[in-house]
Specification:
Length: 473
C-alpha cells in the first residue's frame, strides 16, 4: 500500500496466517511455496546488517550471471561491464524494456505480441502458456509496461506483499478469522487483481471494491461487511475517513493499509482520527512487487533490500544523501529471472532516512516516505530567467491543510487549477490560492494564475486512482 505507486498492493485474501493457520488455494503448490517463503523472510528479519549485505551481493551475482547467460539484450547492454559494480552499469528504462522485450526476456518462446494477446483476452487467473503470470502498468508515466513471472518468481511476489501484512500483525488462523476489505482496482491485468486471484485463505473473508464505484454503494457495502482490516489507495482512505467523521460510514477497522498513492501527513492524521489507528504505508510497484513498508513503530518505511536493491538518485543518476529527496530510483529485482530488471528506472521521488536503527531491530534501511513521481514536479518560469522545478512536497504543505475530502492540482497551459471536493461552503478559496502564490513566490517562481474549482468528487483514473498533482493532457 504509500507511492505512491503503488499500484500493486494488496493481495486479495493473502494474510500472514497465525500459528496453525494455513492458506488455501486451488493451486496447493503455490500455497505451500508461499508458506515456505514467508518463513524464510521472517528469519531474515533477524539478520544483522552484514548478513543482509552478504545475501544481497550473492543474489546480485546470481541474477547477473543468469541474465548474461540467457538474455541477448543484456549480453549487449552490459558488454564489457559484466564484472563492474552495480553503480557503474547503464540505466534501464521502461521504453528499453518494451522496445527490446523479446530479447530481454530469458525464455526465447516468449514474444511481446503473444503476451499482449494473452492480456487482451485475460478474464481471470489464466497463465500465459500455462506457465507465466502477466500484469501490466497503467501507462500513467507515458508508456505501458508488461511484466511476467514464473512460479518461483510469483511466489516471491506473493511473499513480499505478505511481509507488509505480517509486520503489522494482520494474522489470521483457525480460531481467528479476519474480514478484510480492499478498495482498489479490479482490472484483470492489474497486479493486485492477479495476486488476489492466486491465493485465498479460508479464514480471511475478503470484500473487494473497485475504487471507481459510486461512493454511496461503496459506503453501504463497507457498512454491511464491517472489515477488521481496511486496505485502499491513500486518496480513498482520506475520503472514507471524512465520510466516517460525517457519520455516513460506520466501520471500526483494527488495521488500515495505504497503498499506491502518496500518504500525506494530513491524510494520516485523519485516518487516525476516524478509526483510532495509525495507517501502515506500503510502497510497491508492478515491476518489483513490494519495495518497502512500515513496521509497527512507524519510524519510516523499511526497504526490502533482500528482494530489491533500491538506489535513490538525482536526475543524473548520482546517489543523493539521506534527507534529500531523490528525483527517481533505480531498482534491481534480485529474484527476477524471466524478465531481469537491473538498474531499472522508476520516476518515484523518495527520501532516504538518516535514522540508522529502528526499535523493531530489522536490518533493512529506512526511507522517510514517497513524495510522488517526477512527473508530479511542476515547472514554472523563474523570476531570474529560465525554468524552476517545484517538487510535490511544496504543494502538499499548503494543500494538505485544506479541510477537503480530496484535492488535486492540475497544471494547465494558462495557469494552475486547484480542484477541491467536499470543502465547507465557508472555506476561503481565495485564501488558499493566495497561500499557494506565496509559496511559489518564495521559490522564485513567476506566479501563475491560480483558479480554485469546487467539484463533487476528484476525478479518478481508469484504475480508480486520484493523483494529487498532474499536468493537463
Amino acid at each position: 500500500m504509500t507511492g505512491q505507486r503503488l499500484l500493486t498492493w494488496p493481495p486479495r485474501g493473502l494474510l500472514a496466517a497465525g500459528d496453525g493457520g494455513r492458506l488455501w488455494s486451488g493451486n496447493i503448490s503455490v500455497v505451500l511455496r508461499v508458506l515456505g517463503r514467508r518463513h524464510t523472510l521472517r528469519q531474515r528479519d533477524r539478520w544483522t546488517r552484514e548478513q543482509l549485505q552478504a545475501h544481497q551481493g550473492c543474489a546480485l551475482r546470481q541474477l547477473r550471471d543468469h541474465a548474461y547467460a540467457h538474455s541477448p539484450f543484456y549480453q549487449r547492454f552490459h558488454a564489457g561491464r559484466t564484472d563492474r559494480p552495480l553503480h557503474e552499469l547503464p540505466v534501464l528504462t521502461k521504453a528499453m524494456v518494451m522496445e527490446h522485450f523479446d530479447e530481454l526476456v530469458t525464455d526465447p518462446a516468449v514474444t511481446l505480441a503473444d503476451v499482449e494477446a494473452h492480456l487482451a483476452a485475460l478474464k481471470g487467473n489464466e497463465r500465459f502458456r500455462g506457465r507465466y503470470w502477466v500484469a501490466a502498468t497503467s501507462g500513467t508515466t507515458g508508456r505501458r509496461g508488461i511484466f511476467l513471472w514464473d512460479l518461483e518468481e510469483w511466489v516471491e511476489v506473493l511473499a513480499s506483499y505478505n511481509r507488509s501484512l505480517d509486520w503489522a500483525g494482520a494474522t489470521a488462523g483457525l480460531t481467528r478469522p479476519v474480514r478484510m476489505a480492499v478498495v482498489s482496482s479490479t482490472t484483470p491485468w492489474h497486479q493486485s487483481a492477479r495476486v488476489g486471484a492466486t491465493v485465498r485463505s479460508p479464514w480471511v473473508q475478503t470484500l473487494r471494491i473497485d475504487s471507481g464505484d459510486p461512493l454511496e454503494r461503496t459506503l453501504q457495502r463497507l457498512d454491511r461487511f464491517q472489515p477488521q482490516v481496511l486496505v485502499a489507495y491513500a486518496s480513498m482512505l482520506r475520503l472514507l475517513a471524512f465520510e466516517q467523521a460525517a457519520g455516513h460510514l460506520r466501520i471500526a477497522p483494527d488495521l488500515v493499509f495505504s497503498a499506491s498513492e502518496v500518504l500525506t501527513g494530513e491524510t494520516r492524521r485523519r485516518i487516525d482520527q476516524a478509526w483510532g489507528t495509525q495507517p501502515f504505508d506500503v510502497y510497491a510497484a508492478t515491476e518489483t512487487a513490494g519495495i518497502a513498508s512500515e513496521c509497527q513503530f512507524h519510524t519510516g518505511l523499511h526497504l526490502f533490500e533482500d528482494l530489491v536493491v533500491t538506489e535513490v538518485v538525482d536526475g543524473e543518476n548520482q546517489p543523493v544523501p539521506p534527507g534529500v529527496p531523490g528525483e527517481k530510483i533505480l531498482v534491481t529485482v534480485l529474484f527476477g529471472r524471466t524478465q531481469p530488471l537491473i538498474r531499472y528506472e522508476m520516476s518515484d521521488s523518495i527520501t532516504s532516512s538518516d535514522r540508522v536503527h529502528c526499535p523493531c531491530g530489522r536490518p533493512y534501511p529506512l526511507i522517510e516516505g514517497v513524495q510522488g513521481r517526477v512527473e508530479e514536479a511542476l515547472e514554472f518560469p523563474a523570476r531570474a530567467g529560465g525554468q524552476i522545478r517545484v517538487q510535490p512536497t511544496v504543494f502538499h504543505s499548503v494543500m494538505d491543510a485544506a479541510p477537503a475530502e480530496g484535492w488535486q492540482l492540475v497544471q494547465e497551459p494558462d495557469g494552475l487549477a486547484v480542484l477541491l471536493a467536499g470543502a465547507p461552503d465557508a472555506f476561503d478559496d481565495d485564501g488558499l490560492a493566495g497561500r499557494l502564490m506565496h509559496e511559489l513566490q518564495s521559490h522564485g517562481v513567476v506566479t501563475p494564475q491560480i483558479e480554485v474549482r469546487r467539484l463533487p468528487a476528484i476525478p479518478r483514473t481508469a484504475l480508480g486512482k486520484a493523483p494529487l498533482i498532474k499536468k493537463s493532457s
